[in-house]
Each structure stands twice: as C-alpha cells, then as structure tokens.
Amino acid sequence: MMDRTGEENSCVSIAEMSDPLRFAKSKLNFHPEPQQLPVFDPAIKRGILCCNRQWGKSTTLAALAVHRAWSLAPALILVVAPVVRQAYELILKIKGFLRELGVRTRQDGFNGVSLLLPNGSRIIAVPSDPDTIRGYSRVSMILIDEAARVSDDTFNAVTPAMARSNGVVWLMSTPKGRTGFFHALWSNGDPRWTRIHSTVADCSRISPEFLESERAAKPAADLRKTTSASSRTRTTSSSILTTSPMPSRTRSMHSTTIRPASRKPRRCITTPESISASSATIPRSPSSSTASSIPGSATRSPTSG
C-alpha cells in the first residue's frame, strides 16, 4: 500500500499514531528497556532525563521524535546541543529510525543539518547559541542533548518558540555541578516537569567488568557523574539527586522527590559592646591614623570600610 512517504510501506494505524510506545515497537523495531518506558508517556509535556552514560537517552528520544514528526505533521522539531556535532549524532539516530519506517528524507534547503520529511515535518539541529537560535516559531518539540552543558541564555532563548504550539521539551544529560537551568529545573520540585533518574545499576547493557576497569582508572567523583548521574563530591554532605522509589504502573513511577540539604545560615549579630570589644583587641600603629587622613593613600585604617 502506498502511504504518505511516497513509498510502499505498511500503514500506521490510528492506535499507533496515538501511542508512541506501540509505534516505536511495531514501526521502528525499537523495544525500550523497562527504565526507558516512562519516556513514552504521551501526557508528558516537559521531561528531564538525568541518567548515566550509555543509558540510551538519545536513542529513546530519537524514537519519540520520529513518532511526533510522523503523527503531528507538519511538525517542527529542534535538536539543541552544546556543539552541532553532538546534535548531528542525534539527527543520525532519528534518520536511522526513519529509514526503518521506510521514509526518505532530504535537507530542508535552509539549515545544514536538517531532515525534511515527505509529510512536511522538519527536524533541525541547532547549535547552543542564544543569538542565532531565535526566529523559529510553532515548534512542536525541543530536544536538548547534554543539557547540563548548554548555557542558560540558550535555554531561555529557545523555549519561547513553543508558545503557540503547546509543544514538548525534553532535557537529557548527565549532571555537571549544581549550577545552570538543568540543575535548577531538576531540583526545584516544579510538578509540571517529569523527572527520570537512573544509574548504571539499571542498565543491563553495561558489564560489571567494564565498570571495574572504570573504577580503577578514574576518580570516584568523576565516575559518579557518568555512572550514578550524581554531582556529589567528597566535600558535600548530600547528593542533589535523591529519588523516591518508583511504583509500577503509576504516573509517579517517573517522578522524583527532591530533598535539598537544609543549611541554617550563619547570623552575625553586631552590638555596640561587640564593636568596642573587638576594636579594643586590634593593635593600632601610631602611623595608621596619619596614613588614613592622606587623600589617595593606599593604606586603610583598621576601622575603615
């Protein structure tokens, strides 16, 4: 049967159009592992993948992007990464799934790294540059790869492109410290974001032998970032990523409970008695008052500023 790809291919049923997981399995020959299944929940509008390296973040979201480009044509999908090369790798995975679907693509004629589908959908790789990422509108999906390494300015510049489309945004990364929008959105508890956390223990594709060789060759803090998806170092008392157990077959199976470390701020109470007591213990040289009275002098009196 001829479908809208212009090639002979099996039809996509209405059920497959509305169910990303069923579509991925039957049309893309992609069978997600258990920890990847929550990504295919069609109710998710804003999602964060904070997972170990080689978890399958790019492949899983590539399958999700193909479903959206196919079922909501003409859809515009942006792939953002710190550099174009990283975005291009995700584009290649998307193109591989389209090939599995029997869809021929070409460049859109305007963007170097882009895919134009016969149904009018476009998938474009854009660099992490807040000055050049503007100008897109009615964006259906935004995928930000290595999001912890993408600047806040880029994130703030690209998300308004979904204002009129009610689009979907996914952030995927291993963590990089406690700064930036990736850490802020992960830890602020905003219920509009779905947070999925996974460690190397959940990834059956990584062998214990490989992990042992990595432990022997790398510092523990660096290894935690890539295998445990944690930014915790030896100098901190708690991890920024604390997840609750994931009950099966519920919406909360891919949510997290954030427990930030509570630290009482140190208060410094200044009283006239403490000022006089502290100043009495500071030795004053005979020349200090003279030097402070000279305009432009580099020497400051002990009580100045």
List keywords for this structure.
305 residues, 7 strands, 12% strand, disordered N terminus
Per the CATH scheme, the topology name is Rossmann fold
- For CATH, the homologous superfamily is named as P-loop containing nucleotide triphosphate hydrolases
Shape: globular
Uncertain stretches of 5 or more adjacent residues: 1-10, 231-272, 274-305
Question: Helix proportion of residues, in percent?
Answer: 25-40%
Secondary structure category: alpha/beta
Second rung of CATH, namely the architecture: 3-Layer(aba) Sandwich
Question: How would you describe what is shown here?
Answer:
- With 305 residues, this protein is of the alpha/beta class.
- It has one domain: Rossmann fold (3-Layer(aba) Sandwich).
- It has helices at residues 14-18, 20-27, 57-71, 84-101, 152-158, 180-187, 208-217, 220-227, 272-280, 288-292; strands spanning 46-51, 76-81, 114-116, 122-127, 141-145, 168-173, 194-198.
- It has a seven-stranded mixed beta sheet with strand order 3-4-2-5-6-1-7, sandwiched between helices.
- Strand 3 and strand 4 (122-127) form a beta hairpin.
- Helix 3 (57-71) crosses helix 4 (84-101).
- The N and C termini lie far apart (82 Å).
Secondary-structure map:
Layout: H1 14-18, H2 20-27, E1 46-51, H3 57-71, E2 76-81, H4 84-101, E3 114-116, E4 122-127, E5 141-145, H5 152-158, E6 168-173, H6 180-187, E7 194-198, H7 208-217, H8 220-227, H9 272-280, H10 288-292
Parallel strand pairs: 1-6, 1-7, 2-4, 2-5, 5-6
Antiparallel strand pairs: 3-4
In short:
This protein is an alpha/beta fold and 305 residues long. Helices cover 30% and strands 12% of the residues. It starts with 13 loop residues before the first helix and ends in a 13-residue tail after the last helix.
